[in-house]
């Protein structure tokens, strides 16, 4: 997979995407799926860099830095989704006990 160089604009788009998809409107399964997509993208970037290093390819410093920045941003997004899932699960449990 060829990864396009990362820009701050892409980072902002990722954050906006998460904020636009309000967790209140999503099921826990949908939120977990979103988190898994972010995790998959992190792994793809890491694997791509690792494969290039393994093959001895010269990696452009800017490209590598952009990938590292993108990985950090995606990790933040991953943690956001995890936090949203935990909130939703807690709210579900609270609602379940309140109804009992």
Structural summary, described in words:
The protein has one domain (29-99). It is mostly helical. It has helices at 8-20, 28-54, 61-99. It is elongated and about 60 Å long. Helix content is 79%, strand content 0%. It contains three helices and no strands. α1 runs parallel beside α3 (61-99) and α2 runs antiparallel to α3 (61-99). Residues 5-11 have low confidence and may be disordered.
What's the SSE blueprint?
Layout: H1 8-20, H2 28-54, H3 61-99
Helix pairs in contact: 1-3, 2-3
- Write down the secondary-structure element order: HHH
Structural class of the helices, strands and pairings? mainly alpha
Q: Average the pLDDT over all residues and give the rounded result.
A: 84
Please give the domain count: 1
Counting DSSP H or I runs of 4 or more residues, the number of helices is 3
Beta percentage is under 5%
* General shape: elongated
Low-confidence stretches: 5-11
Radius of gyration over C-alpha positions, nearest whole angstrom: 17 Å
Number-wise, the strands total: 0
Q: Summarize the amount of helix as a percent range.
A: over 70%
Largest sheet descriptor: none
Task: State the end-to-end distance.
Answer: 51 Å
Gist?
The chain has 3 helices and no strands. With 100 residues, it is mostly helical. It has one domain (29-99).
Features:
100 residues; mainly alpha; 3 helices; 0% strand
């Amino acid at each position: 997979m060829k990864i396009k160089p990362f820009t701050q604009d892409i980072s902002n788009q990722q954050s906006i995407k998460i904020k636009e998809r309000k967790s209140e409107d999503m099921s826990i399964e949908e939120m977990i799926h979103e988190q898994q997509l972010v995790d998959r993208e992190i792994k793809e970037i890491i694997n791509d860099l690792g494969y290039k290093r393994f093959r001895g390819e010269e990696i452009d410093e800017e490209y590598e830095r952009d990938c590292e920045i993108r990985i950090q941003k995606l990790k933040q997004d991953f943690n956001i989704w995890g936090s949203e899932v935990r909130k939703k699960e807690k709210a579900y449990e609270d609602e379940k006990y309140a109804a009992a």
